[in-house]
Amino acid sequence: KGVFFEKKVEAIIMDILISIFREITDIKTEKRTEDPLRKDVIIYNVVNYINSSNKLITLKDISTKFFYDYNYISRNFKQFMGVGLRDYLYDIRLDKAKHLLDSTDKSVTEISKLLGYSCIHSFSRSFKNKFGLSPQSYKENTLPNDATDAHQGKI
């Protein structure tokens, strides 16, 4: 096998390493010059994931699920949606709270905890800022679905 065999093996290994390095460099270059259409697809998938989930979604969940840095997703989300990702998640969470207040007999405290609020006061303040009523007032002033339908003449 001799000296030439070892040199040939070294040359083959060096070629393989150079090819791998070039592939890695090409992948990094592709990410830097990413197609805007691909960004649209990523943001569409993020929105779909958030809207179809039955659990509380965090920024970390999104970053982990889509294998992108939070800052990258957030920047592109704002660019395409016109609202920041954090604000979008905040609005979705409050919309879910409103739905739970309408459709369940859970207490405001239970809903607050279910949606990941550590403090009911923070939840109440956020809810009131968005909907103009405290969650308790909203729950008390909202008629059950059957009563609402009867009131509007739908039954």
What is the strand and helix layout of this fold?
Layout: H1 2-32, H2 36-52, H3 59-66, H4 70-81, H5 85-103, H6 108-114, H7 120-131, H8 135-141, H9 145-151
Would you give an account of this structure?
With about 160 residues, this protein is an all-alpha fold. It has nine helices and no strands. It has helices at about 1-30, 35-50, 60-65, 70-80, 85-105, 110-115, 120-130, 135-140, 145-150. Helix 2 crosses helix 4. The longest helix has about 30 residues, at about 1-30. The N and C termini lie far apart (about 90 Å). Mean pLDDT is about 80; it is low at about 145-155.
Structure at a glance:
The chain has 9 helices and no strands. By secondary structure, it is mainly α.
Largest sheet: none
Instruction: Specify the structural class.
Output: mainly alpha
Strand % is: under 5%
Order of helices and strands: HHHHHHHHH
Please report the number of helical segments: 9
Q: On the 0-100 scale, what is the average pLDDT?
A: 82
Total beta strand runs:
0
Distance between the termini: 92 Å
Q: Based on CA inertia axes, which overall geometry fits?
A: elongated
**Runs with pLDDT <50, length 5+?**
146-155
Helix content: over 70%
